[in-house]
Amino acid sequence: MFGSYSNFLDHCLATADETIEPSFDILSAGTEVALLDGGVLRVEPNTACDTSLVISCGVHGNETAPIEIVRDIVSDVLAEEQKVGQRVLFIIGNPWAMQVAKRFVDVNMNRLFAGDWQHQDVGLKEVKRAAKLEAFVANFFASEPVTVTQRYHYDLHTAIRGSQRERFAVYPFVEGRQLPANQQAFLARSDIDTVLLQREAGNTFSSFSSLKYEAQSFTLELGQVKPFGENDLKRYSGIDYALRELIAGEPLPEQPKRPVTQFEVCHSIEVTSEHWEFFVPDDALNFTEYAPGTLIWRDGEREYRVGEQPECIVFPNPKVPVGQRAGLMLRALAAE
Ligand SMILES: [Zn+2]
């Protein structure tokens, strides 16, 4: 399937600038395998299935652990050591950034989805790739057999900075929806005990699949950025196990085994002018908690202080241009 390359990842990296003709294969168990492009592989069982599952990684090129996990799952599928009971679309996002061990080359790909690529320079490789990935996901959902009733998309990442909560999920905002118990069960099974509920529609890959295709989608932050080959994949055994169970066709538990703490965004921090001051230290970990009344930012007369309940910061980054987002403040939701 991958010609002279030993696996899905090596093939994707080596052929990033080539046009790949789709190729097809059937495994002995009857599973149909289609390599649709470099880093885009569809597998479909020949038995009735009820779920379309999109598993993406490497939208940020230096977030290597999830890429290694996906590479190994694909190798096991092709070697028929991993059972396939659901249809799955595996995606490796940004091979050019991987080649240079960077988050991105020209533009942050995870801000290009939900059609945002249309407002960018479509001559850029990452912009073209985002458009193509949207089309592959759209076709994948459009070609579902009638037995399929559920769509899931897990977009796998690792974070640049450390976190008080090692692993967390981001649940994109879709008007009126709530996080289902079986998805909380998936997160718990993946050793993810924290979920951040967004309160505005976004342009991430997972926002795209939830907004346009009503998929249960998540951006999963699974650990910290490390170069290829330097990841301790044992720290990722939870997500590896949970994905393999889903691919094999195991249904999700109805209820989570352990509680998942839900946070909602209560304030989006924006750099408002050149005089804007930020009181969160540069090395603050994600999910660092601040007590009520703590000053977070100030710009002349305007300021933001933590409200009556403690708040946590995530994705702090004050080195962005005026008008852009410098972080999010979160509040824990009371357990039900
Ligand atoms: Zn990322």
Please report the number of helical segments: 7
Q: Can you summarize the main beta sheet?
A: 13 strands, mixed
Q: Based on CA inertia axes, which overall geometry fits?
A: globular
Work out the strand percent: 25-35%
- The SSE string, one letter per element, is HEEEEHEHHEEHEHEHEEEEEEE
Helix content: 10-25%
Structural class: alpha/beta
CATH topology-level fold name of the largest domain: Aminopeptidase
CATH C-level class of the largest domain is: Alpha Beta
Distinct small-molecule ligands in the complex = zinc ion
**In terms of per-residue confidence, which ranges show pLDDT below 50 for 5 or more consecutive residues?**
none
N-end to C-end Cα span: 48 Å
Oligomer: single chain
Q: Roughly what is the average pLDDT, rounded to an integer? A: 96
CATH architectural grouping of the largest domain:
3-Layer(aba) Sandwich
- Rg calculated over all Cα atoms: 20 Å
Strand order of the largest sheet: 1-2-3-5-4-6-9-7-8-10-16-15-12
**How many domains in all?**
2
CATH superfamily of the largest domain: Zn peptidases
| Number of beta strands | 16
Properties at a glance:
336 residues, Aminopeptidase, OB fold (Dihydrolipoamide Acetyltransferase, E2P), 13-stranded mixed sheet, three-stranded antiparallel sheet, binds zinc ion
